[in-house]
Write a structure and sequence with these properties.
alpha/beta, 4-stranded mixed beta sheet
Length: 432
């Protein structure tokens, strides 16, 4: 019998404050598993006066009782991982246990070089990649040319595979207009990383499977958001992996019937980073205001995020794609004092109203939002600790989102800190 398992996904284009949620619920979990992406992702977690920035490590590692797993669906930059681990240990000595799947692929310097060169060649058609080498690393995985963590920690195997890879990649780098890299330098650098990381590499699929089947509370944490998914997102302006809930199965070896609940995290407004369609985008002073007040700048890149009103057409698709059992609504505090609030409930395309997200990118680019206007609120919400303490207009906003998406809202976030969280439906978090 499978027992409590929970998947946390981004219900929009990423940056929805999933890190805070994983931290808050991590105290109740036995294991937190990151199942996709690389250090192109970023979570910021605030605990008391301390701020933690995570790119690879699950935020749940801040709880000493938690086993934090980097799953086989990830691509990992060893240098970034070791630096992140050192930074976290410098602030918090008593951490959970970190383990790494031998199936996770390794990001090398040639991946980052190729990523930057390809993005530069795209010119005006650039995707907005973080240039962390994530896309090229996944290309190697799909091309069955990648080097995995299990290879990295075996010196003879690694040396042989790296030599073949660099000979091939240097040809491509030169073709793209770059300078070739040194095999010997990369070999020595990454052999150093391998010695430090070897103790963490273990059969994680077996660990996760045993935890699930024995009734442990296992949380699966996705990177980015639903509409950056390689298949379900706004292609080609997407990431190279699967942030959707189905990715939790692909990236860990756990079967779909082992998943009990799926929570989708969304903001009270919408943001995205990089290029691509964005029907509710606010290219005006209001958008600039929300960006500044909400500190909407990327944890990974520092780039300012694009800002827009809430879009329930997107959220409804996210509910379907992820089989969401509930929504987590974050950043309610940021909309205080804005006056009336707009929410897109339909699109207008070629003179007709539609209630779905077109698969065709050009059609989606041409969609115009059809808004419903709701009364806003002026109160500071950060001291609100219960549903009853929230202003009436906030309650109306929350209920409206529920009605439009057909999905219950389980948790509200009224500020960045752990205790600035209101749980509405605890029964939809962990299945007992």
């Amino acid at each position: 019998k499978f027992m409590p398992t929970l998947v946390i996904v981004g219900a929009q284009w990423g940056d929805e404050a999933k890190g805070k949620l994983v931290d808050v619920l991590g105290s109740e979990a036995d294991m937190v598993v990151r199942y996709s992406g690389g250090n192109n992702a970023g979570h910021t977690v605030i605990v008391g006066d301390e701020e933690f920035k995570f790119h690879l490590i699950p935020a749940g590692i801040l709880h000493p009782n938690v086993t934090a797993v980097l799953g086989g669906g990830m691509v990992i930059c060893p240098k970034a991982l070791l630096q992140e681990l050192a930074n976290t240990r410098a602030k918090r000595k008593n951490l959970g246990t970190l383990v790494i799947s031998p199936a996770a692929h390794v990001v090398f310097p040639y991946h980052r070089i190729i990523d930057s060169l390809e993005e530069a060649l795209r010119g005006e058609s650039s995707i907005g990649t973080t240039s962390r080498g994530i896309g090229p690393a996944y290309q190697d995985k799909v091309g069955r040319f990648g080097i995995r963590m299990g290879d990295l920690i075996k010196p003879e195997v690694f040396a042989k595979k790296l030599k073949i890879a660099i000979e091939f990649k240097n040809r491509l780098i030169v073709l793209l207009g770059g300078e070739p890299i040194s095999y010997q330098e990369v070999l020595e650098e990454f052999n150093g990383y391998a010695k430090e990381l070897a103790p963490f590499v273990t059969e994680t699929d077996e660990l996760v499977s045993k935890a699930v089947s024995s009734g442990k509370r296992v949380m699966f944490e996705g990177a980015q958001g639903t509409f950056l998914d390689l298949d379900c997102g706004t292609y080609p302006f997407v990431t190279s992996s699967h942030p959707v809930s189905g990715g939790a199965c692909l990236g860990t070896g756990v079967g779909p019937r082992a998943i009990d609940n799926v929570l989708g995290v969304c903001k009270t407004y919408t943001t995205r980073v990089g290029a691509g369609p964005f029907p509710t985008e606010l290219n005006n002073e209001l958008g600039d205001h929300i960006r500044v007040v909400g500190k909407e700048f990327g944890t990974t890149t520092g780039r300012g995020r694009r800002i827009g009103w809430q879009d329930t057409v997107l959220l409804k698709k996210s509910v379907d794609v992820n089989s969401l059992s509930g929504l987590v609504l974050t950043r309610l505090d940021i909309l205080s004092g804005l006056g009336d609030i707009s929410v897109a409930t339909k699109y207008e395309l070629n003179g007709e109203e539609i209630s779905f997200v077109p698969i065709d990118g050009e059609a989606f680019q041409n969609c115009k939002p059809v808004y419903k206007t709701l009364q806003g609120w002026d109160e500071n919400l950060r001291n609100c600790k219960s549903w009853e303490s929230l202003p009436a207009n906030v309650q109306k906003y929350v209920r409206f989102i529920e009605e439009q998406t057909g999905c219950p809202i389980v948790i509200l976030s009224v500020g960045p800190a752990r205790d600035e969280t209101i749980v509405l439906r605890p029964e939809l978090i962990w299945k007992s």
